[in-house]
Design brief:
The structure is a single chain. The chain has three helices and five strands. The chain has 99 residues and is an alpha+beta fold. The protein has a single domain, classed as Arc Repressor Mutant, subunit A (Orthogonal Bundle), CATH 1.10.10. The chain has a three-stranded mixed β-sheet with strand order 1-2-3. A two-stranded antiparallel sheet has the order 4-5. It is globular. The termini are far apart.
C-alpha cells in the first residue's frame, strides 16, 4: 500500500463518532478471530487487529467507545470474551452478545 494511502475496511458494525471518526465494533474483531481459528496471545492479537483494520483504527462496543487495538483487547479480556486455548486464547460465539 502506498504511503499515505487509506485502507478501506468493509464492516457490518460502525459507529460514526461526532468528531468524524468512524469506529469499528468489537464484534468485527471477534468475528475475525473466529474465522481465523488461530490461537492468539495478546501481542499477536493486537498485531493482527492493526494489520487488518489499520494502526489508527478506533473501536467501540455496546458499552464503550474510542478504543485503540490494545485497549480493545484489554476490554475483551476483562469482559470474559477471550476463551483460554492452549498457550493463548480464542473467542467463541457463546460469549458474543447477540444484537
Amino acid at each position: 500500500m502506498a504511503t499515505g494511502a487509506v485502507r478501506k475496511i468493509e464492516t457490518r458494525y460502525h459507529l460514526w463518532h461526532p468528531a468524524g471518526m468512524n469506529q469499528i465494533h468489537g464484534h468485527e474483531v471477534m468475528e475475525m478471530m473466529l474465522v481465523s481459528d488461530k490461537t492468539y496471545t495478546r501481542e499477536t492479537l493486537v498485531a493482527e487487529i492493526m494489520e487488518r483494520f489499520g494502526t489508527g483504527a478506533r473501536f467501540h462496543t455496546c458499552s464503550t467507545e474510542n478504543m485503540d487495538a490494545e485497549e480493545l483487547v484489554n476490554f475483551l479480556e476483562a469482559r470474559g470474551k477471550l476463551v483460554p486455548r492452549g498457550e493463548g486464547f480464542q473467542t467463541s460465539k457463546d460469549v458474543m452478545c447477540q444484537h
